[in-house]
Amino acid sequence: MANLIEQLKGLKEIKPRKNWVDAQRELLLSQIQAQSTKKRQSFVINSWFFFKSSLPTGMVRFVARPIGVLTMVSLFVLGTGMLSVNASRLSLPGDFLYPVKLTSEKVGVALTSGEEEKANKYLENAEERVREIEALSVKEDKQDEKSENIKIAADALTVEMKKAQEELEKTIDKPQQSKEVEEAMVESVQALDKKAGELSDKIGLQVEALKYDIDITTALEEASAEVENISVKAIEVVINRIDKIEIEISEKDLVDAIEKKIKNAEDEVQDVQDSLDTAEAVEVDETIVDNEGSDDSTSDETSTEEEGEDEPTSDETSTTEEDTSVQDSKDITVGVEASLTEARDFLNQGDLISAIEIIKESVSLTKSVKDSVGIVAEPTILEDVLESDEEVSSEVVDSEAAAVETVTEEESN
Amino acid sequence: MKKHSLQEKFLIYKVRQHKDADAYGKLYDYYVDRIFRFVFFKVGTQEEAEDLTSEAFLKTWEYINKTNKKIDNFNALIYRVARNVVIDYYRTRRKDVPATDEEQMLRIQDQRDIEQEVNVEFEIKSVEKHLTQLKETYREVIILRYIEEFSITEIAEITAKNKANVRVLLHRGLTALKEIAKK
Questions:
Q1: Looking at the structure, do residues B95 and B123 belong to the same domain, yes or no?
Q2: How many domains would you assign to chain B?
Q3: Helix or strand (DSSP H, E) at A112
Q4: CA of B112 vs chain A CAs: smallest distance (Å)
Q5: Are the beta carbons of B12 and A37 separated by less than 8 Å?
Q6: Among A153, A255, A323, A340, which residue's Cβ finds the most Cβ atoms within 10 Å?
């Protein structure tokens, strides 16, 4: 058998004639040369083809192709995601990429661990909203769209602040942790308080700049109130944590911070009082105008008296109602002022918790007064209303005069 | 050039993409002897083997440039094409007058460049003779296995049979060849 195989191997010696091989080669090449073109394809296709042909089929189908596809898909998803997120960073409300920005912010919050860190993140987002408002207010745009977009940002700002508060709320009841963690937490909350302070100032500036639009200023005032809340809450958290665990923290800093809060609250109350005073003064004016109107109508014929009397009476009652509500509000603000003084006393005695409790209460009371009386509105608006009222009353007077004339004519007939 | 080597793949790539005749020339250089031998054992005459070999190379070129299928193994492809060319040849076989035996003998001497010992010469001659007496299906696998030294897998690929089938054919072929040699 081996011999046979050896002999078979010997058959390898059988070869074609050398001259035939050469001649045939030339013939073959000349035959195929006619078909050959030097067509060049793109480098990518060429390299893919070469890459493909250098691998076994199974390799291409089961390994290389899936890898290629996955790479492309992930490049697309991550790449475009990253690109658009980057591009969206400077987008403003109303922009095409603005939702991308909001989503990436949400993702940022979701990827943050720790309530206080989350709250900080919300505050950063809020800062971004303020930046947007700043950018929008100087942007060349149609007034309607501009106002609408600013309003969107302002509302979003309030939402961010509320969420930050929720997060902070959670930290208050958190069980005690190791000293390092607690210290880090307090530090983080203090940073948050600082941010809130800056934010409050910025919002104040915007309120001033955008006061021509009542909707926006109202929204901004609301946001501002939330910022104030969060700042108070931050102090509360700090005090709470310090109470639970002995943390080396500069007492003076804390006292200063609370002192500042009291000051802010007092300023706020003062503002409310001022606007209450203005509102009162305006109302007095209003009554005078109304009285003048009724004087005109009553000075003429007795037949018109019945009609003329109705309006002033209702006016009078409403004025009294407003008067009482203004009076109530004033009483509350006085009470708030008193309790703030009390807070200051507590602070001086070193009872930080009581002080912060009072501040919290005062801030919320002031806010409710503001809301109920609706004195956030600028006095100018009230004047506008007043002017239109005057027009109405003068028209009434005119028609009444005409009526009087016809009556007298009939009587003379 | 090693079988299925990267170089071979690169040559095929060049043939496919650029219809590069020079690249195909290199493939021809590498395979022409083996394909000729393969065909020669099938048809028995040098003249026919030459014609069919050139036809096989031309058809392979056309196939490479026409198909969209991936060419994994040029080796298997060219043998398969050569095999089909021979089958076609037998189908439409012309009963033309073959070259005379004398002519043929002369050519064979030329072609084989025989400068070997008479003994070896005699052995080869006798094995060759025995091979021609063997059934075609046996002969094919024996040539591929022992002369061209292909693996069972490769033979299965070339002959479009499964591996077990090829093994059985090889075994039977060798037994049959021994029987013939004994006579």
A1: no
A2: 2
A3: none
A4: 5
A5: no
A6: A153
